[in-house]
Amino acid sequence: MRAAYIEQTGPPDVIQVGDLPRPKPGPGQVLIHVRASSLNPIDLYLRSGMIAMPMAFPYVIGCDFAGTVEELGPGASRFRIGDRVWGSNQGLLGRQGVTAEYAAIDEHWLYPIPKNQTDQEAAAQALVGITAHLGLFQYGRLSAGETVYVPGGSGGVGSMVVQMAKAAGARIVTAAGSDSKLDLCRKLGADLALNYRTEDIPARLREFAPDGIDVWYETQREPNLEVAVPLLRKRGRMILMAGRAAKPILPLGAFYPRNCALLGFAMFNATPEEQQRCADDINRWVEAGALKALIGQVFPIAEAARAEQFLDENTIQGAGKLSGKVVIAIE
To answer: Which CATH architecture does the domain made up of 130-267 adopt?
Structure first.
């Protein structure tokens, strides 16, 4: 089968595209004919060696996928051959990735694709959708009528947060760096979209939410807690899911007397049961037309190295020319 893989960690050009043996599904696994995969920053960290996880070479890149059930392993019973499925959490903790024609995946990481969704859209929503849901609801305990702020509302996680918060009945504020991205945020459901290049974000947030922000979903790698924490409402929750090297200053005087909370999590630590709850809501909102994955750029599998380079440029290097997800078409 054709696959994008590495034989060692390093820069994007260590990614090779070639033939690897087709995997055989083991007990409780399903063989997926993969149609699309999508990239996330975690893929860059694993490929570069920045994050050390168990990794068997040749290592197939990519965490997120969508495709069709090709074969059932012993004991697998949740799906039938021909079912369209999506999922994430592959290529992590010793599991092989999914940027290949076929992938053998434990069935508890699989979810049905709604009829009104393409394979590329399903792959694009996977990790970012589950991450947004975990942060908003499991950790942020978001309720209808509360106010959410998320910087980067046109990005992968940010766009999911905007739509999910709106679907849950919250008021949503976001920020972006261009008029086109601000227009996109408004179309996704943002009640207020601010230009972080030209506007005083703290002042505008105080105007919009005089009592403070209930859930601050931080997506930036270098969060400024000295600015953010005083803008939280009493019992406000701040979600942290990025910034491995960040060492921000925490203004304790504005934090603990108001019963605020800082909540950090990594999506790949969530159990299959926790991720299933996220997927159920995601599929329900997709079917209702309340949630749509944003695809910023699609690359063929032959250009997998260029796809990772493009994502690196627009995330870690901060080029800021990407709205939505980078998708790799397998066919």
So the answer is: 3-Layer(aba) Sandwich (3.40)
